[in-house]
Amino acid sequence: MSKPNSLIGVDHEIYGYLNLDNPKSFLLFAGAGSGKTRTLVNVLQEIRENNLGRLIQNGQRVGVITYTNAACNEIQRRLSYDPLFHVSTIHSFVWEMIKPFTEDIKGWLKTKLSADIEDLNLKISKARDINGKTAQQNIRKRESKVTRLDELRLVKKFSYSPTSNRAERGTVSHEEVIQITATLLNESQLLQNILTNRYPILLIDESQDTRKELMEAFIQTQSLNCSKFSLGLFGDLMQRIYGGGKHDLESSLPDDWKTPLKTINYRCPQRVIELINSIREEDDKKKQEPKAGASLGIVRLFIIDSDTVRERDVEASIRAKMSAISDDSFWLEPNKIKALTLEHAMAAIRGNFDKFYLPLATVDSLRDSLLNGTNVSLRFLCNSLLPLVNAIRVRDEFAIASIIKKYSGVISSNNVDFCLDPILTLKNTDKSVDKVRVIVSKLDPPLAQVLRLIKDCKLLYIPDELNVLLVGSSDETNDEEEENLSKRSIAWNQAFLAPISHLENYALYINEELGYGTHQGVKGLEFERVMAIMDDNSANGFLFRYEKLFGAQELSQTDIRNQSEGKDSVLSRTRRLFYVICSRAEKSLAVVAYTKDPEAVKRKSLESGWFREDEIEMM
Question: What stretch or stretches form a coiled coil here (predicted)?
Fold first, then answer.
């Protein structure tokens, strides 16, 4: 292995760990604005420069896993799309590994489906009313799983499509791909050999948000193959977003792992770096330094009595104050600043999608996919249902026909009615479209009403999870029935009651088109002027409480116990959110805190060292 000449600092250090003859594994701490992607690309380019011939001769590649398609595209672009590097999202990467293991996948699914059916049988047997909505939904779920279990024997090859909304025979879901891979990696020496022989170097970006069971399987694979396999993890536990990651990643690594640091923040001005270092002081105490020549920057805290003001008026006033303080007229132009709400529930209420979002956000198994768009049902609602509804509203006949042809079986050789009389089938489809147009053109109907009509008219394939919930004519579920429903089903039933406009606003929000920055949407991004808004009254705070973080509300016994046991808590989650948002600012930052106890917030802000007296304004 040639000695690298072009790398310096931590980049040189990391390249040294990726020695094909003496591999080492590492977790790189890369705080906000530290140039993590730059380091990743620099190291990969050096590998290409010095190890290309050997890797090609051995039929090997370097694996690079990123969290989003956008990140994949950016890294591939910087590497000139060199096929030496297999850059992909986690799901695509692991599916490429496991898809030849048909019998193993079949065995995993058989075990999982059998357990699910047994659980549903128990629920159905305990039903007080077998004709009740809950019992009927469970019967439909069981039927779907029994059918899938029975059809496993016919599957000769499994498929996975991250963009498909339709579950067909032989398909595996987003969630199943991760679970199956973790199980097979832990149990199959053959799969471990395939991974380590094909990819002697595997680098994982945003490792703090990689699913816990899969991360543990990768780490175990490395420990069993440490003489020929380097596993490199890039990330920052302070910036983790999703609940399914490995929270103890740093503390649970094997003793022989390396832990390099990137401590320079190339994004933020000096004062913002000082602030985010103070925030981290109460967590992992890691610190960053400003780059050479970094500007001073401006930080202000505006504390507002939440019982006495109107939000829009006071926030406009704050922009005017920031303009004067920073001598920057762009603070007066809303489109020149980035208002970050810090918490999704707060954005949901302000953005009018709370009736759809909040019920689903209470369910652990839905929360992550609600924000990253990986859930099949959510993809169907946003990528199939909404485009069809919008096309029907504006009478775009071409779009209507294209969507129905793509996402339903109406215009298909598999539809007997269409084959026998295509003209009549198309006329009936037009009548169905007209029925939908009546309710969506002038009204804001409940999502359930639209879904039932779409289902009855067979205009779209509806995912099983939603299909089984459309049983019965009533949108309401009584208390007795809810006792027997899963939390997930209860949440969907409540979300179904939301007006369809709330689903539309949710779709805009996750696509960064609603004017509110999402937590995962802004991580890695930067803005010259940031207004960070904290408002527990609007946040529904079951996961985050800014009043607790800022000392205006006492910690509960559960909070105290979680802290003492090192568990993730409302305080640690809120602190991470606060850190991520503040660390987006390139020039100036306004923190806006709505509170019922302004003096307590001021006292905590001063005692913690977050803000100085002359940086705090009571409003």
Answer: none
Q: Where are the alpha helices (DSSP H) in 458-553?
A: 464-467, 479-484, 487-496, 500-510, 519-522, 536-539, 546-549
pLDDT of residue 509: 82
Q: Is 31 annotated for ligand binding? A: yes
Tokens of 232: 């490199």
Task: Outline where 302-421 has alpha helix (H).
Answer: 311-326, 344-350, 354-361, 364-372, 376-380, 386-393, 397-407, 416-420
**Which pair of structure tokens corresponds to residue 356?**
């759809």
**pLDDT in the model for residue 3:** 46
- Tens of pLDDT along 69-125? 778 888 999 999 999 999 999 999 999 999 999 999 999 999 999 999 999 999 899
> Which residue from 96, 84, 87, 48 is spatially nearest to 68, judged by alpha carbons?
87
Determine contact, residues 530/582, Cβ cutoff 8 Å: yes
Q: Which residues contact 272 (CB under 8 A, 6 or more apart)?
A: 297, 299, 582, 583, 585, 589
Q: What is the pTM of this model?
A: 0.78
Residue 259 per-residue DSSP state: -
Is 37 labelled a binding residue? yes
The answer to whether 422 touches 437, Cβ cutoff 8 Å, is: no
Alpha carbon distance 129, 121 (integer Å): 14
| CB-neighbour burial class of residue 309 (10 A; exposed 0-12, middle 13-18, buried 19+) | middle
Cα-based torsion angle of the residue sequence 305, 298, 580, 333 in order, rounded to the nearest 10 degrees: 70
Ranges of H-type helices in 3-35: 9-17
Instruction: State residue 587 phi and psi, 5-degree precision.
Output: -125, -60
Q: Which CATH architecture has domain 9-98+183-256?
A: 3-Layer(aba) Sandwich (3.40)
Phi-psi region of 458 (alpha: psi -120 to 50; beta: other; left: phi over 0): left
Q: Is 30 annotated as a binding residue?
A: yes
Q: Is 32 annotated as a binding residue?
A: yes
Under 8 Å CB-to-CB from 221, ≥6 apart: which residues? 185, 192, 195, 196, 229, 231
Write the CATH number of the domain with boundaries 296-351+516-618. Answer: 3.40.50
Question: In the prediction, which pLDDT does 63 show?
Answer: 97
Q: Which two tokens stand for residue 276?
A: 């985010």
User: Which H/E stretch holds residue 527?
Assistant: strand 527-535
The answer to whether the annotation marks 35 as part of a ligand binding site is yes
**Sheet containing strand 26-30, strands side by side:** 85-89, 62-66, 201-204, 230-235, 26-30, 261-262
- 244 known ligand binder: no
pLDDT at residue 456 in the model: 87
Helix (H) / strand (E) containing 193: helix 189-198
CA 576/CA 574 separation, integer angstroms: 5
Cα 557 from Cα 555, distance rounded (Å): 7
Output the pLDDT for position 271: 97
The pLDDT assigned to 540 comes to 56
Task: Answer yes or no: is 551 a known binding residue.
Answer: no
pLDDT at 2: 44
Residues 259 and 26 sit within 8 Å (Cβ to Cβ): yes
> Cβ neighbours of residue 1 under 8 Å, at least 6 residues apart?
19, 20, 21, 50, 51
The residue ranges of the chain whose pLDDT is under 50 are 1-4, 473-475, 477-484, 518-521
